[in-house]
Design goal:
The protein contains seven helices and nine strands. The protein is an alpha/beta fold. Residues 4-240 form the Nucleoside phosphorylase domain.
């Protein structure tokens, strides 16, 4: 039986509308229960998690990132694509465009950052946290659709749920950041610890504070995501069959999280 591809969707993405034959299930992990939708996108078996829960009720700093990534691991997922609404730190990355990541800067404060807290010490390499193979597939399909795409970008993770100050935005840009969001970390590092091939499709919904000519609102983000939804679904429809066929896994031959499941 083939393994499912994982999707983690954020603000403004309806997981049920992405799939046919969709059914809601839950799985118990060592870090808590996780609800997910399983169904098909074309010929691809897909498991979809909603970061913020049904009704967008969980703020970024309280998302159970470890449970989410562990749930995908336990479901047999090896490749993960995520969506993320972000603000631009550069005038050259305009709202309405898309970005694929190559690195990150982590400014979160209160989130648990690792699976490896007890029983096993593991120092995971983060030279390439985002999957080059998944990136290539997404970039090919997004370019074929004529979307405005930026690659090799740097995701800045802010704690949230407030928006960033103009001073913070200038600092992030000066340090090499491209876009700023609230949910990319520790999601990507946990995925790397789990040996998953991971990439996020960042949807540029606005310029960040101090770059934008107006005050930022959550409605602005929702409106931009609604405008991008048709293109985003088409990207996934075209990309997931190719991503499914990619070689599996990064890192060690042994599954790095099995000790948690077997302890």
């Amino acid at each position: 039986m083939s393994r499912p591809v994982g999707l983690i969707v954020g603000t403004g993405v309806d997981s049920v509308q992405l799939l046919s034959d969709a059914s809601l299930s839950s799985i118990n992990t060592p870090f808590g229960d996780v609800s997910y939708v399983r169904g098909s996108m074309g010929d691809v078996d897909v498991c979809v998690l909603k970061r913020h829960g049904e009704g967008h009720v969980v703020p970024p700093h309280l998302i159970n990132y470890r449970a989410n990534i562990m749930a995908l691991y336990m479901l047999g997922v090896e490749k993960v694509v995520t969506t993320s609404a972000v603000g631009s730190l550069k005038k050259s990355i305009a709202p309405g465009s898309y970005a694929l990541m190559d690195g990150f800067l982590d400014f979160t404060k209160v989130r648990v950052q690792t699976f490896f807290e007890v029983g096993k010490v593991v120092h995971t390499d983060m030279t390439h946290p985002y999957s080059a193979a998944v990136t290539d597939v997404l970039a090919t399909e997004m370019s074929a659709l004529g979307l405005s795409l930026h690659t090799g970008e740097v995701y800045v993770a802010a704690e949230g749920p407030r928006f960033e100050s103009p001073q913070e935005v200038r600092m992030y840009a000066a340090m090499g950041g491209s876009v700023v969001g609230m949910t990319g970390l520790p999601e990507v590092t946990l995925a790397r610890e789990a040996g998953l091939e991971y990439q996020t499709i960042a949807i540029i919904t606005n310029y960040a504070a101090g770059i934008s000519a107006s005050l930022l609102t959550h409605k602005e983000v929702l409106d931009a995501m609604a405008a991008a939804s048709t293109s985003l679904v088409e990207v996934l429809r075209r990309s997931l069959p190719h991503i499914k066929q990619l070689p599996a896994g990064v890192g060690d031959d042994e599954h790095p999280l099995d000790f948690l499941l077997n302890s």
